[in-house]
Amino acid sequence: MSQTLQYLLEVTLCWAVFYAIFFAFLRQVTFFSVNRWYLLSTLLLGIFIPLLRHVEIDLHQEQISQALPLVMMVGEMPAQMAISVEEATIDWQQYIYWALGGVYFIGVSFFAYRLLRSLYKIYQLKSMARVEIADQAILLHTDQPHLPFSFLHYIFISDQVALSEEYDDILRHEIEHVRSHHTINVLLIELIQILFWFNPFIYLYKTAIRQTHEYLADAAVLQSTNRKTYGTMLLKQSLSGLEIALTHRFFHSHIKKRINMMYQKQSGRSAWINYSFALIGVFTMGLLFACQQNEEVEIIDSSFIKGQILDEVVLTAFGRSRIKTEMSPTTLDPINNATWLEVTSEVNTGTAIQRVPLFPGCEELGESYLSQKECANNKLNHYLYTNLIYPKEARKAGIEGRTLVQFVIQKDGTIGRTHLVKDIGGGCGEAALAVINNMNDDGIRWTPGVDAGQQVDVLYTLPVIYKLEG
Fold it and tell me: Are 235 and 356 within one domain?
């Protein structure tokens, strides 16, 4: 759920930036067709750009993945601690998530129902209409009072509304909507609105795109109609009748904006400079999210790097639940009310070196580097899950998330330059950092990394995930 909320906030951020660029630089530009495609494309880009964080970009030519078995540690948790975890996760977090999910589902259902209702109204009108074939559209004359509108390749005209003087201009206006497939844009926005009904920027986008459609249709009519006459016709009309949300109505409510745009001076070539801000905005947002990719890239090779990323350590607190595991009963005896640590030790690589540092305790295996490396990873896993704990303060507060600790394995095998890259509070970051710092105090000396025959410092990043489950 937290990842979903984060994604929705990131979509909102993208839409906010893209719409702000349109509002500040493009809305007064008379390149209506370009504005239309800017609005449609950035609406979709705002949905997909945040997903770049989950796309792994291969920056290495030779990458061979190697995974070690899952290691799991089970330890007894006091009964009072199990109660506090259960209260934090179920009574507060889960109920809030359920409530938010329920509100979201109600909103989705309402907007989906409204869309289907509008489609059904159009279907009813179409089924009772008298058909007339025009050059670029199908005219449907109805007996119901409603405003002239277009939908897909149909133009609906009510026989109950007198439009004799303006009929030709209205028809050219609606034919432009049909010819430019504006209904497809409207349907796309309606579908996106169903999913993002709570986002205020979808309504700003919807209004801007509809206005742009009207500007385009007005411009097509003005090619053969006097501007003053057409504007006067718009002003004197005050019709009312059936309003259908999906349709393009000729007598649109934004009459003043349409007339102002008709009298606005056409933009010159210099106005194209404004679109450079649009390109900068799209590039910036794409770069922002592309640079936030997950650190867990599975890479290992016969040559390794100076920057190592250990795979995630997942620390999970269970309240009143039995842990299921595929490990044999002789290896692990699961118990109730337990806290467990899950480690999948995959080493990720960046700048190649000959040998990565090895956790001590496997020197007796002799000259086989791969055997020593596998043994060292298991030793490291054992050390981590033996010493890492889920802080009491974090469990009581229901704190979950990922911390990142960086440290350097120096040429003499000691740990140095440790620092906390990311913390979630509740003592979680300090707990992970303390385990790394205690390696020196425990007398642990790594076998240092080697590159070009020389011992080198190697940077490691350790992600630790804290998770509460009731």
Answer: no
H or E element that contains 158: strand 154-158
248 lies in the same domain as 329: no
pLDDT tens digit sequence for 28-70: 899 999 999 999 999 999 999 988 875 544 433 332 223 333 3
The DSSP symbol for 463 reads E
C-alpha separations of 216 from 172, 176, 188, 190 in Å: 12, 8, 19, 20
Would you call 67 helix, strand, or coil by DSSP? coil
Q: Are residues 17 and 159 in the same domain?
A: yes
Residue 281 sits in the same domain as residue 181: yes
Contact status, residue 240 vs residue 194, Cβ threshold 8 Å: no
Residue 223 CA to its chain's centroid (Å): 43
> Do 285 and 402 belong to one domain?
no
Specify whether 311 is located in the same domain as 276. no
**Owner of token pair 């410092």:** 457
Structural tokens at position 210: 């509809």
Is the model's pTM score more than 0.70? no
Q: Which residues contact 460 (CB under 8 A, 6 or more apart)?
A: 307, 308, 309, 310, 406, 407, 408, 409
**CA 91 → CA 68, 97, 181, 236, distances in Å?**
37, 11, 50, 60
Helix (H) or strand (E) holding 449: strand 449-451
* Inside any domain, residue 88: no
Residues 6+ apart with CB under 8 A from 259: 231, 234, 235
Q: Which domain holds residue 364?
A: 295-469
CB 248 within 8 A of CB 177: yes
Structural domain total, the chain: 2
Helix (H) or strand (E) holding 7: helix 2-21
Instruction: Verify that 30 and 118 share a domain, yes or no.
Output: yes
Residue 460 CA: distances (Å) to CA of 81, 238, 289, 348, 437:
33, 71, 23, 9, 13
Please answer whether residues 208 and 216 qualify as being in contact, where contact means their C-beta atoms are separated by less than 8 angstroms.
no
Residue 444 lies in a domain: yes
Residue from 64, 65, 71, 62 nearest 377 by CA? 71
Identify which of 249, 54, 223 has the alpha carbon closest to the alpha carbon of residue 150: 249
For 147-180, write each residue's pLDDT tens digit: 788 998 899 988 887 766 677 888 888 889 999 9
